[in-house]
């Protein structure tokens, strides 16, 4: 399995979650052994120029916090893009570290149907309108090289157009939208036939007092014989044992009993985040 994330340039520089997940990328309990980040860098965020959106030269500079290699590649050169992607995959497989591919490209039309880019970026869009589309540019090169003939190229385009047209035609036959097909976790039996949630009552989850006492005793003891325990910690364990004997519970012991009872049922519990190793809270 290889993790691939696709980003926009403005989002890559502007979303805090990108910076945060880079810092998770090499932590022992969180690593995916390297993610390939592909940034579609059309050099504009909706209508915002990069100089108004970030303080660094490249949108991908945020990846430098983990010294990830960053490949800037001209998206008008498909073979260069393929080469860079191969190198990125090889890097990830060899070193199990994150790597970034910055596809430097442009957006031919507006951000959406309502956006006319000539309003906000007239000079840039005058240049873009002069650009030969990448498909034509690459096709002309291959035809000139004799790699493909014009007829082969046109047949390939016609084949692709036909796939799209047929899918579009079929889509008109769909009169009913089945939202549930798109849900990743449908909840069977949660709703009644007419769509109302059933009663939200929970089944009883109580456990016998002997089991709570057992968990309290275990949580107050040290499993290793002749283990020298810190005196401050020893006091906490003694106080916890006293509470268990006196049938009193504080937050920490309540947590132990919750985790302990779930573990007794054979369900794995993973604690993650700051301070869990010491059990501060």
From TrEMBL:
Q: Does the keyword Transit peptide apply?
A: yes
Name all Dehydrogenase E1 component domain ranges: 2-179
Question: What SUPFAM superfamilies does this protein map onto?
Answer: Thiamin diphosphate-binding fold (THDP-binding)
InterPro entries tied to this protein: 2oxoglutarate_DH_E1 (IPR011603), DH_E1 (IPR001017), THDP-binding (IPR029061)
Cofactors needed by this protein, per the record, are:
thiamine diphosphate
Gene Ontology biological-process annotations: tricarboxylic acid cycle
**Membrane listed as a keyword:** no
Gene Ontology molecular function, alphabetical: oxoglutarate dehydrogenase (succinyl-transferring) activity; thiamine pyrophosphate binding
Reading the lineage from the top rank, the first entry is Eukaryota
Q: Which family does it belong to?
A: Belongs to the alpha-ketoglutarate dehydrogenase family.
According to UniProt, the name of this protein is: OGDHL protein
- Whose protein is this, by species? Ptilonorhynchus violaceus
Q: What is the lineage of its organism?
A: Eukaryota, Metazoa, Chordata, Craniata, Vertebrata
């Amino acid at each position: 399995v290889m993790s691939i994330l696709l980003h926009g340039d403005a989002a890559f520089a502007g979303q805090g979650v990108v910076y945060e997940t880079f810092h998770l990328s090499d932590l022992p309990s969180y690593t995916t052994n390297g993610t390939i980040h592909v940034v579609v860098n059309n050099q504009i965020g909706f209508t915002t120029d990069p100089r108004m959106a970030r303080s660094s030269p490249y949108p991908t500079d945020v990846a430098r916090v983990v010294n990830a290699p960053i490949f800037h590649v001209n998206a008008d050169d498909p073979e260069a893009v393929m080469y860079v992607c191969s190198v990125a995959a090889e890097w990830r497989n060899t070193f199990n570290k994150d790597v970034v591919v910055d596809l430097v490209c442009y957006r031919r039309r507006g951000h959406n149907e309502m956006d006319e880019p000539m309003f906000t970026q007239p000079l840039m869009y005058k240049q873009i309108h002069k650009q030969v589309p990448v498909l034509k540019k690459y096709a002309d090169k291959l035809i000139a090289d004799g790699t493909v003939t014009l007829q082969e190229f046109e047949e390939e385009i016609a084949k692709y157009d036909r796939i799209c047209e047929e899918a579009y035609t079929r889509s008109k036959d769909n009169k009913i939208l089945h939202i549930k097909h798109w849900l990743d976790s449908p909840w069977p039996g949660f709703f009644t036939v007419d769509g109302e949630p059933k009663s939200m009552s929970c089944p009883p989850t109580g456990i016998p007092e002997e089991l709570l006492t057992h968990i309290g005793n275990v949580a107050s003891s040290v499993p290793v014989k002749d283990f020298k325990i810190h005196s401050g910690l020893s006091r906490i364990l003694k106080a916890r044992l006293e509470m268990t004997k006196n049938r009193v519970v504080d937050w920490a012991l309540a947590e132990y009993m919750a985790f302990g009872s779930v573990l007794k049922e054979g369900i794995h519990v993973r604690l993650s985040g700051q301070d869990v190793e010491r059990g501060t809270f």
